[in-house]
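hey m, so remember when u said the tokens were messed up on ur end? i reran from scratch. heres the input so u can diff it against urs
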Amino acid sequence: MKYYIRTFGCQMNIYDSQKMAGILKNLGYEPAEDWKDADVILVNTCSVREKPDQKVLSALGEFKKVKKDNPNAIIGVCGCLAQRAGYEILQKAPFIDMVFGTTNIHHLPKLLEEAKSGNKAVEIIEEIDQGEVELDKYPTVRENEYTAYVTIIRGCDKACTYCIVPYTRGKERSRRIGEILQEVQFLVEDGVKEIHLIGQNVTAYGKDLGDVKFWELLYAVANVKGVERIRFTTGHPRDLDESIIKAMADIPQVCEALHLPIQAGSDKILSAMDRGYTQKEYLKKIELLKKYIPNIALSTDIIVGFPGETYQDYLQTVKVIKEVEYDQVFAFKYSPRPGTPAADLDITENPEIVSKRLSELINIQKDISLKKNLQYEGKIVEVLVEEDKGNGELVGRTRTNKLVHLIGRNNLLGRLIDVKISQANRFSLVGEIIE
């Protein structure tokens, strides 16, 4: 019996898919190289923007064909879109056998049995399922042998007016440090070199546990023997304080890279988004990061065309991009999400104008990204070799999260090596191994 999982969305969705693969592996399933050969197809969905919603329905229309050759094949939909609009998906795609949300993934074995018996296995729980911690007991099935995601917190307590996450993922629930460290230890013993701590808001970790701080967790993970690199995603600017930044600078394993979403540069729009900080306050935290970690690589998220945004507001966002000089920017047009406060606001700008602004912003960032990458030419950097592309081509990442292509032996996989950068491109680097 074989399974196939298609994942849309963020790192949390990827991690959930890896856990579902672990559950299926425990049930005796093997991964299918092609979805057409699968006995179980799961579509793990995102609902942050409208485009992923459309991609899910398109994928389901394609996957439906598997039932022609294999009538007993099971097709399931899970994740954030399923949590928000599971019954609506069933109406649009009645051939689906399973639908389940974000907090009851651990029920997959039971749901699979129900679907196999010919019943529609639908379980969308609006309250947080207290048994969700059962999911942590399953292994993850990863494509990358040397880096691994570890969920440290689920849900989000922020109330950003555009965001669907609090409705699909619930309130913040931090995992106990002991459980996290146990998972990290297991991963290290399995050959993992880089631990990537993830959550909707990792910098809020521990607030619901009473006396635990995120920076304390960073030290604890670093003390696990065999952990060579640590990253974390995503933090909210409101929760990033000097104690976290000091820990980042102090702990050798914590990489010099941080994703810190600003979303907009205008104080008016930030207030309408209910982000809880001003442009000045955000830039002060960027200043602190650069003070403690001078070579830090920064990335961010930006929404263009939020209701009420004028050209002057947009220019404030451009100002921030030019001042911070991010290494990478993930920019999108505003997409109203049903059920969020912002969905009731009138769209105030012509979509064509918004598209033009987005394109302009992306081009500005492309030049900045190339400028930042060119600074690596001639430098020697540490690279974790993660992939063998064949014909001697290896791919790895620097501590600053830059993708590096190089020529070498496959026995270098999983090793930290010194590489001299010979060429910089806009989205990657080319390097030569220092023997």
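this time it looks ok to me. Residues 244 and 371 are 28 Å apart (CA to CA). if urs says something different then somethings off w ur setup not the seq
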